[in-house]
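User:
Care to share a sequence and structure tokens?

Assistant:
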Amino acid sequence: MTAHEEFSREKKGIDGFIASGYIIREISEDLDGAMVCFHKTNSQEHPAELRLLTSEGRKYITTLLIEQQKG
């Protein structure tokens, strides 16, 4: 899989969570990439996690987090 295809897959996953009403709760980075924890406010659903392996995916989620914090 090319880097662009991998990023497209990650972006679709991120956008799917956001479209379903999830917000970004936590991002933790390690040598294998970034683990993003999503949760729904006012919901009893369990948090969802997504591992990002590409630098483009990590940049994209960071941009969304900044937008989310601005409100």
Remarks:
- The mean pLDDT is 94.
- The chain has one domain: 3-70.
- The two ends are 35 Å apart (CA to CA).
- The chain is about 45% helix and 30% strand.
